[in-house]
Amino acid sequence: MRRTRQAKPFPRQASRNTKPSLAQILSDEASTVKTAQTERSSDTELTPSSPDQYVSAAYFPASPGRTWTYLVNDLGTSNVKVLAEVATVNDAETRIAVNAKTGVSICYTSDNDGIMIHRQFFPNVSVEGSDRGDLLVTFIPPIRLADGIVEVGQTAYSIGTARYTLLPRVRIIDLSYTATYTLQARKEVAVPAGAFDTLLFQGTLMISGDLESETFYVSKGVGLVKDVVKFAGRKRVTELNVTNTEP
Which of 100, 110, 156, 217 has its CA 20 to 30 A from that of 131? Predict the structure, then answer.
């Protein structure tokens, strides 16, 4: 009688599906994910030429481990943290700030080139005509919030493509976008965390005809203190409650 050959079991480790890290999801290639312990370096230190000019990167921290807790619409809180890992987006090494409650994250740079948003990540969203999945929105070129040195009345303009990628099944839709952000004033603002000396920016982002307006306040060494977003008749107010940063 012919003996039946028993199938060899797969090794336990090989049978597991390894879930990619957030940095790997956000990077163009998993091999480009790195861990960085210091802020993105610059060859030279920017120096304003007048008291009315400001180095924008000082108002938008990028150090890993920075955390902020925000009160959203007076209803609940959300925690935001800058990860140790960096993600490469279109050859740019970007910082990752993630909302622990929603899983929403942004890839951004804050250095001598200014403040720029390269990519956004929205987990488990429903897209018309598709199953639920994770959504990446990549801005080509990145949205510029501010130049390296800014002064009151100065506007940063961006125009390009917002590339929507639905995961895990890669479905890509390219939409046109335009964005403008203007430094309106230096202003003191009071939030639950206290009173802060801030720079007040106002901006708009239009993607394929859909307009979002935003007013945000950033404080030197602290980062985002208050944010007011209006979109499709809705309004979201985000105010700083607690942070481990210092002015």
Answer: 100
